[in-house]
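Hi W.,

Here's what went into the run:
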Amino acid sequence: MPPIDESVKQAVLNAVPSLRAFAISLCGNVDRADDLVQETLLRALANINSFQPGTNMSAWLFTILRNHFRSEYRKRRREVEDADGSYADTLKSHPEQHGRMEFTEFKTALNQLPADQREALILVGASGFSYEEAANICGCAVGTIKSRVNRARTRLAELMSIDGIDDFGPDHTTRAVLAGNDR
Amino acid sequence: MDDQNKPGGARKPNVEAVSSRSKKQTAKLSRDVQAKLGQQLRAVYDDVVSQGVPDRFAELLSRLDDNKDKH
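Here's what came out:
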């Protein structure tokens, strides 16, 4: 393994918290996510010469993590996922401004999204990557990411019975009643 | 926004409406709904981020440094 520059090491460490959050969303299990992060770091450091200084370290690490997950982890994915979904067992506390029910409901809805939609939504909506960066990480077109993010948002709103998303459908009234406490 | 207030909102569902459902809804997600979803998504994500760097990863990187020093 080549010597690791201190600033590079620090950049890698700085990316670990968000790498973990992304890994948990992919793996559906914290222990496995941490193993995935560890393997990602080892791979990244072994190939540190292929990192271009000045480019986004975080995006580079996310790409390695995602590729490694796709090749090694996907087939075993979520087999030991707990009932509440991927983020459940990481939660020691949650922000008070979110009702517990709503927070739990959101996590459940997030876990019901198709994997590619959840991934795109998290990269853009939570990790703070641009559509272009997310497209590079996922190896797909920018338009594909935009479409996945849109579909993910729509589906989430639907799953959470948030009103104001449609004006048709037989269950509109029921949905509005169910969502009545949201505001 | 523009689409939301158009008349005939109570139109009957039909096959055509169902097949284009996802597209219509995408167009109709309001800013409020998007903001709310975004806020919740970040709350879930940031809950993990706020845990910082677990010891195993900090130790992993120091171990690599130790190896380097031996060379």
